[in-house]
Write a structure and sequence with these properties.
Blueprint (H helix, E strand, L loop, with lengths): L45 E8 L6 H8 L8 H17 L3 E10 L9 E10 L4 E9 L2 E11 L7 E9 L3 E8 L10
Organism: Ilyodon furcidens
Main location: membrane
Protein name: Sorting and assembly machinery component 50 A
């Protein structure tokens, strides 16, 4: 699996006729101090930038409504909470398969000492998804085929087509959903 390196906490004996070295002759190695880490939990911070990596078809203006609250955070706990809420909103749009959040300190010339960058790493859904199933009941059977095109024009629109072929009835349907920006539960 791997190599384990271990040191004893007890010093090795450095005297005796076979070693020929006295303990006073050895220089102790200097121990480097680790860089000081600062706890930012209760300190005031400023979210300077929010990046969204992984966008393909999705328009950025659509997402500004969902991530706006992240800029209003005052401390690290608040940034984490608001970033998580923004992540949930992005997933609820129905255009992303996966959304990850990365919070880091700001870098660059205009970076503030208490500045943070929040990055949302997203993976969009496929352009076309399909489904099929069968239903049986009351001396009737049917086969249902469905196609869905999520995020058709880049602003969380959804086009669905459903075709049902049965022993007694055949039907089909086409629907188009367009959400309102900022109010995605309304379609």
């Amino acid at each position: 699996m791997g190599t384990v390196h271990a040191r004893s906490l007890d010093p090795l004996p450095m005297h005796g006729p076979e070693l020929g070295v006295q303990a006073d002759d050895i220089e102790a190695p200097e121990i480097e101090q680790e860089p000081k880490q600062e706890v930012l939990e209760n300190k005031d911070v400023v979210v300077q930038r929010v990046h969204i990596d992984g966008l393909g078809r999705t328009k950025e203006d659509l997402l500004s409504y969902e991530i706006a609250e992240v800029f209003r955070a005052n401390n690290l706990i608040d940034v984490m909470r608001r970033s998580h809420e923004a992540r949930q909103k992005l997933l609820r749009l129905g255009v992303f398969r996966k959304v990850e959040v990365v919070i880091d300190t700001s870098q660059g010339e205009d970076a503030l000492p208490n500045g943070l960058d929040v990055t949302f790493v997203v993976t969009e859904l496929r352009r076309l998804t399909g489904s099929y199933n069968t239903m049986v009941g009351n001396n009737e059977g049917s086969m249902v085929l469905g196609l869905k095109l999520p995020n058709v024009f880049g602003r969380a629109e959804k086009l669905t087509f459903q075709f049902s072929y049965g022993t007694k009835e055949t039907s089909y349907g086409l629907s188009f959903f367009k959400p309102q920006p900022g109010h995605f539960e309304r379609k």
